[in-house]
Design brief:
57% of the residues lie in helices and 9% in strands. It has 25 helices and ten strands. The protein has a five-stranded antiparallel beta sheet, with helices on one face. It has a five-stranded antiparallel beta sheet with strand order 8-7-9-6-10.
């Protein structure tokens, strides 16, 4: 039975990595499936399963998500984003400097994902107004957020997780500012790199909006009425030139004063007196008028008519759109908005290519609609990230001092030795009770897929411990690397952590590698703390791919980047920071 379990856990581990890399299923589902297989194969007892869900690290991470949400909902992060917009001027270099000054310290205190989400539309807006390509700013935005997260234990979920796993293994818990010396060195070196070599490597990459044709042809809304003698009467919209001609855009139909909603607008049969709300250029309006059968209502001249607006929206990890086909969402019928283009993994797709495409996290949609419709749609879609949104949710600005005070109190108390889990939970509850964030927003702010990944991988890690697989890997690695000394082992552990993080989720890497690093140190007879710190920084500082870190995935789409843009800019930074870690970790944490 033991031999079977040992072989089985390595098979499960291999399949887990394969599914992570191939993205055949979502990472949280893969992690939970691995956990379930370990239970089925009797590698985990009921006591082990209960212990996984009693781990303090996921609870702390969940509480930190809520604290971050309190700063977002009270407008603190948005205010800082507006400060950036005011101070950046028109200079790319100045904009980078202001970004660094705001994002680096802020991401050291709160989760960096909502920080990047709030800054995205602000930075894109600045890029448009200053004629600086967004691709020159968004990758640095993500990199600054990642670098700032290495300064404190609160900066990223990976730091909290590694510290929690290490404490479970019997190590002394990390204090909140213990990693600050190396984190500050990382921040300084990373910032200097982005201002020099990295800035030269950043691409001038067009974004999704470049699919729009030049000029004002798309900007105006018109309404046309079907006349009593129109040849269009009795025809389905899909049979008419209005539907087939790409110069026009039909949004909805009005009949007897009521908007007609159908599952398929193109199948609606036209009747005398129907009003068609559409977008067309001046030339297009003339073409329709000359064809006969339609009369344009007063005020529908493109020079006087309503505005048709464009919005760029990105699908977040918890969006209801993720995993659904675009056609199945019926956006035209339900909201009178049209998706005219999609950006995915560096490729811009026009509407004729969309068809039956299934939407994924990170996809960016170019949405066109009459201004009022778009405004209503944006207000309803809180789980879409609008990159050029003109509609702002109201902030609880009068609660902002309370939110700042709560977060500051959590950081100060944790710095003075109060258990991080305790102060984080008390702070999260205080933020809800005092109205900085309501309970529904608090629940929505928690990145549940991340927590499920953590629980699943904690289960797999425990299964490796129970079956002896972890000990086997650690002893084999220690025997192979021991002759080279602890510095070489440190370099290999960091390199392995940062390499794996570029291909699979960083939390999975942290959970699986931390116990192995501790076992390797025990086999070599050295202090495990330097190795654990190497995993903490190696799994957090991920720059070479857009999939290794969630903030990279956000800017990947919004900035119109290609995969190799991250390799070109991020890989040299990974190498520089690897060398930095090998030099400075033994200085701050001697063997």
């Amino acid at each position: 039975m033991e031999s079977f379990q040992l072989i089985a856990v390595f098979i499960i581990l291999g399949l887990t990595f394969l599914f992570f890399v191939k993205e055949w299923l979502s990472p949280d589902l893969v992690s939970l499936a691995a956990f379930a297989l370990c239970i089925i194969c009797q590698m985990l007892s009921a006591k082990d399963v209960a212990a996984v869900f009693q781990n303090s690290a996921p609870l702390t991470i969940g509480a930190m998500f809520i604290l971050s949400a309190s700063l977002t909902r009270t407008g603190i992060i948005n205010w800082l984003a507006q400060v950036f917009q005011r101070l950046a001027g028109k200079s790319e270099l100045r904009a980078l400097a202001i970004l660094a000054l705001i994002v680096l310290p802020l991401s050291a205190c709160i989760n960096n994902t909502p920080l990047v989400v709030v800054f995205l539309p602000i930075v894109i807006g600045f890029a448009r107004s200053s004629e600086v390509k967004a691709s020159r700013l968004l990758m640095p935005l993500s990199f600054f957020a990642i670098l700032g997260g290495t300064i404190t234990l609160f900066g990223t979920s990976t730091n909290i997780l590694v510290s929690g796993v290490a404490a479970e293994s019997g190590m002394k818990p990390f204090s909140i500012f213990e990693i600050a010396p190396l984190g500050l060195i990382y921040a300084i070196i990373g910032t200097l790199y982005l201002f020099t070599v990295g800035r030269r490597l950043l691409p001038d990459r067009p974004t999704l909006a470049t699919l729009l044709p030049a000029g004002d042809a798309r900007d105006f809304l018109s309404t046309a009425k079907v006349t009593a003698k129109s040849p269009l009467i009795g025809k389905a919209l899909a049979e008419t030139d209005l539907w087939k001609n790409k110069a026009f855009r039909l949004f909805y139909l009005v009949r007897a004063g009521q908007r007609v909603d159908t599952a398929a607008l193109g199948e609606e049969v036209l009747m005398a007196g129907d009003t068609i709300v559409l977008k067309a250029s001046s030339r297009g309006v003339s073409q329709i008028a000359e064809s006969g059968g339609l009369s344009f209502e007063k005020g529908s001249d493109p020079a006087k008519g309503g505005r048709v607006k464009i919005a760029e929206a990105m699908i977040g990890p918890r969006s209801n759109f993720a995993g659904k086909k675009l056609a199945d969402l019926h956006l035209l019928q339900q909201h009178a908005v049209v998706v005219v283009a999609l950006h995915r993994k560096g490729v811009n797709l026009g509407e004729e290519e969309l068809g039956q495409m299934t939407l994924n996290f990170g996809d960016a949609l170019l949405i066109e609609a009459p201004a009022a419709n778009l405004e209503r749609f944006q207000a309803l879609q809180e789980d879409l990230i609008f990159l050029n949104s003109e509609v702002e949710r109201p902030f609880r600005q009068h609660k902002a001092p309370l939110a700042v005070a709560i977060v500051a109190a959590v950081v100060i108390l944790a710095a003075f030795g109060v258990p991080i889990l305790s102060v984080a939970i008390v702070g999260a509850v205080a933020a809800m009770v005092l109205g900085c964030v309501d309970p529904r927003e608090a629940y929505d702010s928690v990145e549940w897929p991340i927590l499920f990944i953590i629980f699943g991988m904690l289960g797999l890690g425990q299964a490796m411990e129970n079956t002896g697989a972890a000990r086997l890997v650690a002893e084999s690695t220690a025997a192979w690397l021991s002759p080279f000394g602890p510095i070489a082992v440190l370099a290999v552990i960091y390199l392995l952590a940062t390499t794996l993080t570029e291909t699979i989720t960083n939390n999975a890497v942290a959970i699986l590698m931390t116990p192995l690093a501790i076992s390797i140190a025990a086999g070599m007879g050295v202090d495990p703390r330097p190795f654990v710190v190497a995993i903490m920084f190696g799994a957090s500082a991920s720059f070479a791919t857009p999939i290794g870190y969630q903030t990279n995935t956000y800017v990947f789409t919004a900035g119109g980047y290609r995969f190799m843009d991250f390799v070109k800019v991020g890989l040299p930074l990974n190498v520089v920071l690897w060398i930095t870690a090998v030099i400075f970790i033994p200085v701050f944490w001697p063997f």
